[in-house]
Specification:
This protein is mainly beta and 112 residues long. It has one helix and seven strands. The chain has one domain: Phosphorylase Kinase, domain 1, CATH 3.30.200. Strand 4 and strand 5 form a beta hairpin. The N and C termini lie close together (10 Å).
Length: 112
């Protein structure tokens, strides 16, 4: 599996910065990923990618979706997977919960 999008309950505490060297085309506002996540507005960007305010249309709830900036770079992909798995293993009110992990082809093999 090539991950790129991690969804979680909406947490707007994301800082905005341009990702250095991000060249992979990323999905944009209004696109539906994995047949489930409707991208809304961009919340922030960083070295790993972008975080979008989104809607999980299957469960009708607001979520944050994180898209990996460089899905073709194996080191970035592995780091993204480790981060998602580590966060998913935690349960604390001050730590965002991870609900999904997957890929979206047609967007530079978008990882989510």
């Amino acid at each position: 599996m090539d991950p790129r999008l991690v969804s979680s309950p909406l947490d707007t505490g994301v800082t905005s910065a341009l990702p250095p060297g991000a060249t992979a085309p990323l999905p944009g506002q209004g696109q539906l990923l994995a047949g489930r996540y409707l991208l809304g507005s961009l919340l922030g960007q960083g070295g790993m990618g972008q975080v979008w305010r989104s809607r999980d249309v299957a469960l009708d709830r607001e979520v944050a979706v994180k898209l990996l900036a460089a899905p073709g770079v194996s080191e970035a992909r592995e780091r993204f997977l480790r981060e998602a798995r580590a966060a998913a293993a935690l349960n604390h009110p001050n730590i965002v919960a991870i609900h999904d992990l997957g890929e979206e082809s047609g967007h530079g093999d978008a990882c989510y």
